[in-house]
Amino acid sequence: MTTIPMVALVGNPNAGKSALFNALTGARQKVGNYPGVTVERKSGRLALDDGRPVELVDLPGTYSLDPQSPDESVTRNVIIGRQEGERIPTALVIVIDASNLDNHLRFALELIALGRPVVIALNMIDMAERDGLTIDPERLSRELGVPVIPTVAVRKRGLAPLIEALSAIVGGSANAGRLDEAAAEESIPDLIALQRRARSIARIATVDEKAVRRWSRMIDSVALHPVFGIVLLLALLFVMFQAVFAWAEAPMGWIEAAQGWLIDLVNGALPDGFLRSLIADGIIAGVGSVVVFLPQILILFFFILLLEASGYMVRAAFLMDRLMAGIGLSGRAFIPLLSSFACAIPGIMATRTIDDPKDRLTTILIAPLMTCSARLPVYAVIIAAFIPARDVGPGIGLQGLVMFVLYLTGVAGAMLAALIFRRTIAKGVSSGFMMELPKYQMPNLRDVAIGLWQRAYVFLRRAGTIIMAVTVVLWLLTSYPQAPEGSGLKQSEYSIAGRIASGLEVIVRPIGFNHEMALAVIPAMAAREVAVAALQTVYAIDAGDDEEAGASALSTRLQSRWTLPMALSFLMWFVFAPQCLSTIAVIRRETNGWKWPLFALGYLFALAYLAAGATFWLATALGL
Amino acid sequence: MRLDELPRGRPGHIAGVDWSSLRPNEARRLRELGFDEGVAIEKLHNAPFGADPIACQVGRMIVAIRRVHAAAVTVDLTSGTSTAS
Question: Which has more confidence, A106 or A356?
Fold first, then answer.
């Protein structure tokens, strides 16, 4: 156990805390989770002046010590020494935005009142100058009675003096006692009184104030304009989604190529048998089918991080708040839901920015209904086989129209589900929408890169554990027991998965599914697009020696074995069904238990069954 | 004048906030965002779709709130020249 001193970085949201954290610790960061809550714990090493190491922990930004969201209660509990699995900080670095002293000083006063050793980073001093403010750090230090160091975290200015000041207050470990309960309770102060004191100190410390043009307000006059604002938002989203699909194409090809190369390597190195099949067909192919989404996830997060860092994200939430309020959510839910069109996993991860727990839960539960990119291959194959490629209007192809309707069906289902959840399981008055619109800032590419690396790491770690375990199990189920040679029995029916499919067929026959379709939806639980591969395999086996033809003409085979109502039913199933399992695993992680992932599984299966059934019965009745 | 009725671009000061009409967590969040008697305020933007929520300059911050909450805030219009912040 290392017992190096721990220093916590605290401050209001938008004070530039994370930028300061990145500047101080560089890439030497560890991202984990606090036990029992879904709040990220970011920590890094920092060497003091005399070479002593300290652990720097970046606490979630909060406006006061009175907790409202999970993020805020972690911040409070760490500071007062009541966070499970965290020692009490030896000292605090309070980060305040120099251009917004009035508000940030209030929280600083609250923290100083706790009596712990503190140093204040008077951050974004350049922004204050840009706003025409001249602030005297020494005067501020005198008023507050603690050291104040001007910094510009994104330009790495003021770091050395900050570390020097920190070295002076991190003495022995003698002062790292736990605050007692009474002191902690006392620390919930009268906000209004503190606020007024903060304002008077801000007035004293501000030695000069010139009226200047405020860039943020000028940008906002376009970005928040009722018409141009929406046009700009739509344009940004369009570029973002184009990029997710277009830029990812090449790297996804490389990953697939690397995967093929690895499989060839294994096939060449190992004799035919259990081990070779497990490694090549089970692990490499299975994990590869998920890792192939890494480029899309990274591109999506690249845009999300840019929009966050620039200050635009909150504006997008502002523009969309009214529409989201219509289904009982707030503007905050817009971006996570939008991200879910690429993949529900980053979408669900992005719900961490929603403070209201019920808003957040509802958003998590409906995120899988946004049609993710993994459904595209399934849609594409089925539509190509069953929907004639003709125009139904000028420039409107029938195939594209069906695809659009499928997307729309998902959105409509999500809206309906949200409305119902907000009146039942996530009941409660909407927390409303009260947010600070931070000043626009040029995003720092290093901070974005660090954020991307952290997302990639979290995703790959999961691919290496949960997803690998699931794919291995699925592979075992489809490969064993092996059909005796020459018995004429099909592996696809003889294996455990085949037998499960036979059992499943009884349940899904009423909604129009045959044995192959039942079989295809099982591996699709690992990753949706695997359904296509599964169908291909099944029909390839059916084709016997004629494997080449079987593989190349999947759509002809589908046409000969499925009717149109069956195909439509299958599509509907994919709109609603709770696949893939990685999504369920993320829901478990983000809601911290099995209750909600199991609920999501149940309600989505029910919805998928009913929707697919209704489609099948209706289409049959119409004689399609 | 109530904040939700305040026209755009007319700077004023917060005359009072009816804290009792807000739920405790909403009242606290408003206080945290700097709403208090005497603070300079100006409505800057209406959101699309029903002009709700609204964005206001409150002290040095720009804050977005829904109209239903803005109705709890009373504003005194500043006559003559505006004083920023």
Answer: A106
